[in-house]
Design goal:
about 180 residues, Arc Repressor Mutant, subunit A, 2 domains, five-stranded parallel beta sheet, Photosynthetic apparatus regulatory protein RegA, CheY-like_superfamily, phosphoprotein, Bact_response_regulator, sequence-specific DNA binding
């Protein structure tokens, strides 16, 4: 993507705040964004991100919606208060319309479902107001989206199969069969 690399190289301020409580995703995404030319600062909590914002307001931010100590929307507002021209992309494991609307109203320029590809994040960060971000080159299949959602709810229920099945409105044995399978492509 030489065109995008050139756009990043031409940016006067390449500072980027990456906020996610998933360490593996934070590390992987941080390295990928640094490889593309951004100056990445990472945070794992709302408190840490807020503290980092006191020192410097970044030109770009990639923020997780749901975190251990709060909601990423608070960080969107904090970034907007410190730097009105910042470009913010929200990430979430929950692709709900209501949360997407809330993120955009708070000041995010785009909203992506996890696991998001670094190229999709960069496209969203660099998209101008008159151009919509391109659809992903390799979108997740419907089966994969369903599997990711089930896994996330399962994690939130502390790996309790009965509670997860109740919240998802499915039979416990059906859920056990789904959890025993490998992730779809």
């Amino acid at each position: 993507m030489p065109e995008i690399d050139a756009r990043i190289a031409a940016l006067p301020d390449k500072s980027l705040l990456l906020l996610d409580d998933d360490q593996a995703l934070r590390t992987r995404m941080g390295r990928a964004l640094e490889a593309r030319g951004f100056e990445v600062t990472t945070a794992e909590s709302v408190a840490e991100a807020t503290r980092l914002l006191r020192d410097k307001a970044p030109a770009f931010a990639v923020l997780d919606m749901r975190l251990e100590d709060g909601n990423g929307l608070k960080v969107v507002e904090a970034v907007r208060d410190r730097r009105a021209d910042a470009r913010i992309v929200m990430l979430t494991g929950y692709g709900a319309i209501a949360t997407a609307v809330a993120a955009v109203k708070a000041g995010a320029v785009d909203y992506l479902s996890k696991p998001a590809d670094a190229d999709d994040v960069v496209k969203a960060l660099l998209a101008t107001a008159d151009e919509a971000p391109e659809p992903p080159d390799n979108p997740m299949s419907a089966d994969r989206v369903r599997w990711e959602h089930i896994q996330r709810v399962y994690e939130l229920c502390d790996h309790n199969v009965s509670e997860t099945a109740r919240r998802l409105g499915m039979h416990r044995r059906t859920l056990q069969r789904i959890l025993a399978k490998r992730a779809p492509r």
